[in-house]
Specification:
Helices cover about 10% and strands about 50% of the residues. By secondary structure, it is mainly beta. The protein has a single domain, classed as Porin, CATH 2.40.160. Strands 1, 2, 3, 4, 5, 6, 7, 8, 9 and 10 form a ten-stranded antiparallel sheet that branches. Strand 6 and strand 7 form a beta hairpin. It is elongated, with a radius of gyration of 22 Å.
């Protein structure tokens, strides 16, 4: 959870630093003119592409009220693993600086939960749960770009998305008593990111760093209200960061 907060703060800092630097830079136009690749690319009303990427997800926990002060328990740790992303892009031009984008994709990831040594646990394996996620990721984003500088242009992107988790186990009748951790099959996120457009001879290449933050509780409680795996958690939210490389 702390790592996700640091990622979010880093994204916000880079966003402001990049656009402040671009504003200062535009006041002192000393860039040498170069051969302009794809000079009319940004004038297209609609264009398409695809993306590839890597992702890494965390969880944010909201515990029951007496979790820390009375029970004196430690946080549940999350071991994050690298995942991959792939998808398509549809881009609609609004004006020279605004684009509306739809980027449906498949995001695969895995996380391990490591519980503290609760007294309810009778086996060492009870402290560990693997959470596999296969998301159909459907974001609707607004891309805000600066003025193009030769074959380079920074941008920020933000919006909302919905995830359909094909690995949620929501309809599974088993729960953690049978080593099955369940989460909801659909939730809503907000997204924020920064990136750079590079105009090459035949196509536009754009790496970006995105933060993905769930807005809805994803936890499905176990059948036993006193379950050590879910009984001490009120809410569970995904927090992710994704490196997205687009080809348009």
């Amino acid at each position: 959870m702390l790592e996700s907060r640091n990622i979010f703060r880093s994204i916000v800092f880079v966003l402001f630093a990049s656009f402040f630097a671009n504003g200062v830079y535009s006041q002192y136009p000393v860039v040498r003119e170069r051969l302009i690749n794809l000079p009319t690319f940004d004038k297209k009303p609609v264009h398409y592409g695809y993306f590839l990427g890597l992702n890494q997800y965390d969880f944010k926990f909201e515990y029951i009220q007496n979790y820390y002060k009375e029970l004196m328990l430690r946080d549940i740790a999350v071991e994050q693993k690298k995942g991959f992303s792939v998808g398509l892009i549809g881009d609609v031009r609004i004006n020279d600086y605004l684009n509306l984008r739809f980027e449906p994709g498949l995001f695969y990831n895995s996380r391990d939960l490591i519980y503290p040594e609760y007294v309810e646990f009778t086996r060492a394996t009870d402290r560990f749960r693997e959470i596999k996620s296969t998301y159909i990721h459907l974001p609707l984003l607004v891309k805000i770009s600066t003025k193009r500088i030769n074959n380079f242009k920074p941008f920020i992107v933000g919006g909302f998305s919905t995830d359909f988790n094909l690995s949620s186990n929501q309809k599974n009748s088993d729960d953690n008593a049978s080593n099955v951790f369940r989460v909801v099959s659909q939730h809503i996120n907000y997204e924020l990111g920064i990136g750079f457009d590079f105009y090459l001879y035949y196509f536009k290449f754009s790496p970006s760093l995105r933060g993905i933050f769930s807005m809805e509780n994803e936890l499905i409680p176990d059948g036993d209200p006193d379950s050590p795996w879910t009984g001490k958690i009120n809410n569970l939210f995904s927090r992710g960061v994704a490196l997205i490389i687009t080809f348009e």
